[in-house]
Known about the structure:
Blueprint (H helix, E strand, L loop, with lengths): L11 E10 L6 E8 L2 E8 L5 E7 L7 E10 L2 E4 L1 H36 L1 E2 L2 E2 L4 H30 L4 H26 L9 H14 L4 H13 L1
Antiparallel strand pairs: 1-5, 2-3, 3-6, 4-5, 7-8
Helix pairs in contact: 1-2, 1-3, 1-4, 2-3, 3-4, 3-5
Amino acid sequence: MHDLATTGEDGAVSGEKRFVEYARSTDLHLVAASRNGASGLAIVPTSAEGVSIEQDLASIGKTPQAIVAYDGARADAWIEGEAAVEDLRRLGSALASLESYAHAQRALDMTVDYVQTRVQFGRPIGSFQAVQMRLADLATRVQASNFLVHELLWHFGEGSEDPEQIAVVKAVTAQTVAQVTQDCHLLHGGIGFITEYDLYFHTIRGKEASLRFGGAGGALRTVANALLD
């Protein structure tokens, strides 16, 4: 989804979407569009006539993205209503938060293992108090994200999620993955900056996930506006 400038009059979708992930490899596109003046979601086959990949895009996390043009492409089905579009945004934000947490957790796990085997000054660097204190702080951040994400997903299952809760979790997980991956690179030293090393993968994918459906700044503004209302 990008905006609702895309239209779907008479069941034919026309317009352009940017930053569409896995646009070439997926069978269906879920397209936010307006039809008869109302917002909704169109389910469009990738192979439909009128669907074209205009340009492949480079992303920070190396996830395949593209600009997709729709020129009278027929939709297989429609989900009517602005509520459907908003529900998709909320679920997308929650799943992005889950991914951010997962990358932070994996980066931390890798680092805990590494400091127990990396020897310097005749002892594992994990035995130094400064390293232990840094890891304890990161573990606290990751565990907080763990609790928040799982609580949010439980609320989705119960149908009781709310926008402010989604924004809080997005802000916390986005900030957590940024801080955790940064510190994990520092604790790894030189090897942490090698692109072939898995920590690099979790850093770039975590950054990408933290920005999907809005970053920490936008989420914090949502929380602030809710508090001021």
